[in-house]
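Escalation from tier 1.

The customer reports that the assembly of two entities below gives different structure tokens on two consecutive runs. Tier 1 could not reproduce it. I'm attaching the input and our single run for tier 2 to review.
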Amino acid sequence: MNLLLISKIFLIVAFVIFSIAALRLATHKSVAMGIIGTDALTVSVSVILVALGGIYGIGFFRDIALALVLLGVVGTIAFATVIRRD
Amino acid sequence: MISASIFELIQSVLLIVVAIITIIISIGILRLDSDMDNVVYARIHILGVIDIASVIAFICLGDPLLGVLYFILAPFTAHAMAHGYFHGEDLKNNQSLTNDSNNDKKPKKDDITKEIESSGFYKTVKEENSFDDSNDKITVSTLKIIEDE
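Tier 1 run:
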């Protein structure tokens, strides 16, 4: 069995655990914790998508991950600007 | 049988290190006490660690464009979150926010009396009550006499 495949599967499992932790973070009381949890969830899902695309050879998973990273950053900054309430 | 070249070996070791760091972070970020001071900033700091771990993972998974892009964008998000929390919700550290919230919740007594006097409502109510006060006292006293009998 390929060592790289084992490490990719291990990485996916680790980031799935982190996604659950990020979901728990997003359900805290304050709005800022919701933003932090959502940002963490965006990153973890992107890494999972890139890893799955590498394992199964699905090309458009990378495009989805790229769009997710870009839109996640834009959404986080926009929401943070809203809660700043200047 | 495990077979790998040097390049794949380095890739695999880095991915395993990233996975271990991610598991440690996911346990630690939930075990952090929510009643602690400045816990939001601590969580943003932990999120910075996972950002760099994901950048390493992106590069090792053969997607360096995504890694470099996220390496540039991650500090902006962390700063935006901390800045937004400080100016929007941080009641412990932001002094101007606590002053605003106190003024909103508890207006001063002088302001309330000035508003009532300027509206003209206070004078009319006072005149009506002053005329009716004597009648109220008489009725109360007659009731007491009836009870005694």
